Amino acid sequence: MKIIHKAQAGTMQSSDLMVFLEPAPQLRVEIDSTVKKQFEHLIRRQVESVLQRFSITSGVIRISDRGALDYAIAARLETGLLRACADERKSS
Amino acid sequence: MVVNLINERDRNLARQLVEESGFTFEEEYDLLFGKFEDGELVATAARDHNVFKMICIRESHRGGQCLGELVTALIDSCAYSDIRNFFIFTTLENRGAFAHLNFTPLVTHGKICLLEHGNGLASYLQQHNALKQAGNNGAVVVNCNPFTRGHRYLIEAAAAQVDHLYIFVVREDRSLFPFDVRMALVREGTADLNNVSVLDTSDYAVSQVTFPGYFLKQDDDRLQLQMEIDLLLFARQIAPFFGITHRFIGTEPFCRTTRSYSDTMPCILGPEGIQTIQLERKISGDAPISAFRVRKALRNEDYEALRKLVPAATLEFLRSADGRKLLTTSKNYRRRH
Asked: B230-252 burial, b for 16+ CB within 10 Å, e for fewer?
């Protein structure tokens, strides 16, 4: 799948995260988190595994995390990806 | 649940809450949000383009989920307006609460703190990494609405005094000439100078965020505070990155706001180790050249006068089809800059 337009998902509540996606020529993942020092590598690993599952090879993915657990990260990112990759003509 | 406050009654409740919290209710906002519990407004927040403000939560509801809910609503509303970077002005004691929402401080001035969500400033600077030059560098921040012989004179004189001159063109699209045109005319008008770079200010200088009073009339105290924050941000974040030690300005004979910005500049930049150099404006005929004068001549379609006030590239644009379109707009243009 390919990120074809801007989208976002999630909330800024504690234990949740917001995911912002936009098209770009290359793949870039930016992570901002209240627990960045401790868990950035784990958040990144989780993000990358979802991206791989969806075969995403380009786009900017920005994560603003407030200590979400791994399944929440996967769920929010999946939602964001489905929105960002959706063909707007079909999903009316 | 956080809802849009749209009717008079809800707005008044928000006003009450803001005032009870010790803040001033500001009329300039695009959207106003609130959260009700048992019919009572317990929290409110507003968004003015990319600035979140008047975030107030009733004492009994602090420390819970309210802040997260409000900020989510604010950020969600930005998606519809295609806004990527958001800012919050807050007090020092509340800075921590926003740090937990991934807002990072850009500049602190007295008790006021300007925070940004994400790493917009860092990526702005990174984008311009290739323009970094060693040595004693200077900067001008210009709107160039449009680029005149006066701008050219200021830039040439400034460039002669430093190793490298950075020309920051105001990004905010609130002027008669659109940003792309202003930028292109500055580039063309300075292309022959070999020690200058032209770049945009993004949100970080003379913008809707740092200095809204430049575009909209506001009371003097707020204006003064904005100018100080704008200049501190320049001094502490932008200038060190580019090695800027001098900032150049022209004398301001017309606009009171710009004049007080110029007057404030040495007071703020001086202690941060940046020298302000004010240059006398170039005269044409018997008056200084200004973009205001150019716009007036344009309105009157006085191309003979324009020829004396603007360089060739600007004149060429003014006479082009796109330029002619702006002529129509200019007849109704009453803004200051």
From this structure: bbbbbbebbbebbbbbbbbbbeb
Query: What CA–CA distance (Å, rounded) separates B156 from B154?
Result: 6
Give B283-300 pLDDT, tens digit per residue. Answer: 998 899 999 999 999 999
**Residues from chain B contacting residue A11 (CB–CB below 8 Å):** 68-69, 72
The strand order across the sheet containing A27-33 reads: A7-10, A17-22, A59-65, A27-33
Tell me whether residues A33 and B102 touch, CB distance under 8 A.
yes
Task: Please give the residue of chain A at the shortest CA–CA distance from B97.
Answer: A34
**Whole-model pTM?**
0.88
Distance CA B314, CA B310 (A): 6
Look at residue B145 and give its three-state secondary structure.
coil
In chain B, residues 84-123 whose CB comes closer than 8 Å to chain A:
99-102, 117-119
Q: For A7, phi and psi rounded to 5 degrees?
A: -155, 165
CA distance B33 to B44: 5
* b/e B101-138 (16+ beta carbons within 10 angstroms → b): bbbbebbebeeebbbbbbbbbeebbeebeeeeeeeebb
CA distance B226 to B112: 10
State ipTM.
0.87
Cis peptide before B105 (omega within 30 of 0): no
If 0-12 CB within 10 Å is exposed, 13-18 middle and 19+ buried, where does residue A91 land?
A: exposed
